[in-house]
Design brief:
Helicase, Ruva Protein, domain 3, 11% strand, alpha/beta, GMP Synthetase, Chain A, domain 3, binds adenosine-5'-diphosphate, Rossmann fold, binds magnesium ion, 4 domains, 22 helices, four-stranded mixed beta sheet, five-stranded parallel beta sheet, 466 residues
Length: 466
């Protein structure tokens, strides 16, 4: 028998994992925290009301069967929702949502997986109310996408940004941004029909519609929307029939002045398994990319997240996090959540020590980054220059200076010989490295601004523990 809620939930999770896609699992199950197991009730904590509703709406059958097999038929789930209104005056709070007597408020037993057109194509798909422009941090990495999105949100179907195609790697804010557009339109004008759908869901609906002979209803539904937001269109790759119907819907909507907004994990030209004529239409409007967040944006995102959770953490921890997690925003959020969770678990205030421990336990390859690569990365970020330029032949004054500083720190913080340091800087010889170190030492003595930069950089490098 299961003794604690963690084990019980982990057992459920491994079953769930077998039954949902990676993305579904990461989005809807990974963030769930088990918090209690008592008297046949397993309580799980979810991040928002929306989250709870989504689970109930989409995964109720799966959850029931997993609970049945892993815990027993007389067990039920209870949700605890952490409400996050997203600013300092609205502190998060927790409410318990008891289920109905069967343990679920979803479909009744015996009811087939929804085949009424209402279930399938209804307007009941909700936008996530937490995804707004207000809490979408703007930075160089996303400025164009954000402002195009904002323009579209103010005048859907009227600007020349139709379709609006946003692309970029995982966790960079595509879904957040397109849902923010949807929310903004819905809030500005209750009359407009805004429909958000993932391409995966669209494809599944279409498949069901074929199976059940109701393609008419399917197209009919989509042809009526004023704003169609379709997420992750790379999922259409290789699915010719789905592309055909989407092509048809796209043309119709475009002609009738409805707004189409799409996201993709790649630029349209790199979507190989898509029909040429579809891709060419994607380029009719505006295509904008979202890039990896720069340091300032990362700082702003951490600040914003902490503020939303009503948590105050020291600046050096914020800087440490921003320096250490630079891949994407989802990962950054994951680290922040773990850190907050850790601190409440060990009942310790968040400090640098705890941040390092937390990061080490989740980022496995942290050590591989340390060393000369990390020094080069840190220095180039600090001076806002591409890391490649540290290694190439550029003789521009500020590049030379950054390069010399990176060499200086490489000598100080690694055990590499002068020769191999030179090698890592585009195959320069050891006398260049000696000259660099000499120059930096001289400037530290004579130029106070320069010395300040060196000190700041040293602080950042030390935070990483190298
Ligand atoms: P994608 O769809 O590109 O994979 P998401 O939109 O799901 O990425 O973003 C991942 C997480 O990061 C979400 O929780 C989102 O709210 C957050 N996020 C992304 N970009 C920003 C931003 N610019 N400001 C604030 N939060 C962001
Ligand atoms: Mg997404």
């Amino acid at each position: 028998m299961h003794t604690d809620h963690n084990t019980a939930w982990n057992n459920c999770l491994s079953k769930i994992k077998e039954n949902v896609g990676d993305q579904g699992f990461e989005t809807w199950f990974r963030p769930i925290k088990p918090i209690n197991l008592e008297k046949n009730v397993l309580t799980i904590q979810v991040p928002s009301q929306f989250f709870y509703e989504y689970l109930e709406e989409h995964y109720v059958t799966l959850l029931r069967s997993v609970i049945d097999t892993q815990l027993g038929k007389d067990f039920r789930l209870e949700y605890s929702v952490v409400m996050d209104k997203g600013d300092a005056t609205n502190q998060p709070y927790t409410i318990n949502l008891p289920n109905n007597s069967s343990g679920y408020s979803g479909k009744k037993p015996g009811q087939k997986k929804g085949m009424s057109s209402m279930d399938l194509f209804g307007y009941d798909v909700k936008l996530n109310p937490a995804y707004l422009f207000e809490n979408f941090i703007e930075g160089d990495c996303n400025r164009l996408a954000r402002s195009a999105g904002y323009a579209v949100a103010q005048r859907p179907g009227v600007t020349s940004f139709n379709p609006l195609m946003l692309y970029g790697g995982v966790g960079l804010g595509k879904t957040h941004l397109v849902q923010a557009i949807g929310n903004e339109i819905a809030n500005n004008s209750g009359k407009k029909v805004v429909h958000y759908v993932s391409s995966e869901k669209f494809a599944n609906q279409f498949f069901d519609a074929i199976k059940n002979n109701c393609i008419q209803e399917f197209s009919g539904f989509y042809l009526k929307v004023d704003v169609l937001i379709i997420d992750d269109v790379q999922f259409f790759e290789g699915k010719e029939k789905t592309q055909e119907i989407f092509f048809h819907i796209f043309n119709h909507l475009h002609q009738s002045g409805s707004q189409i907004i799409m996201t993709s994990d790649r630029a349209p030209k790199d979507l190989v398994g898509l029909m040429e004529r579809l891709v060419s239409r994607f380029k009719w409007g505006l295509t904008a990319d979202l890039q990896q967040p720069d340091y300032e944006t990362r700082i702003a995102i951490i600040n914003r997240k902490m503020q939303a959770d009503g948590i105050i953490i020291p600046d050096n921890v914020i800087e440490y996090l921003a320096y250490s997690v630079d891949t994407n925003i989802r990962e950054l959020e994951g680290v922040i959540i773990s850190l907050i969770a850790n601190s409440s678990l060990v009942k310790k205030k968040i400090d640098l020590e705890l941040a390092k421990q937390t990061l080490q336990s989740i980022v496995h390859d942290i050590d591989s980054e340390v060393g000369i690569d990390y020094i080069q990365k840190t220095v180039s970020e600090f001076f806002k220059i591409p890391v490649d330029q540290l290694k190439d032949k550029t003789r521009k004054k500020e590049i030379v200076m950054a390069r010399q500083m990176a060499m200086y720190f490489s000598k100080e913080y690694t055990s590499l010989s002068l020769k191999s340091i030179g090698y890592h800087f585009g195959g320069r010889d050891h006398s260049t490295v000696i000259h660099a170190i000499q120059t930096v030492n001289d400037l530290i003595d004579t130029d106070t601004n320069f010395k300040k930069s060196v000190d700041e950089l040293r602080k950042k490098l030390k935070m990483k523990g190298i």
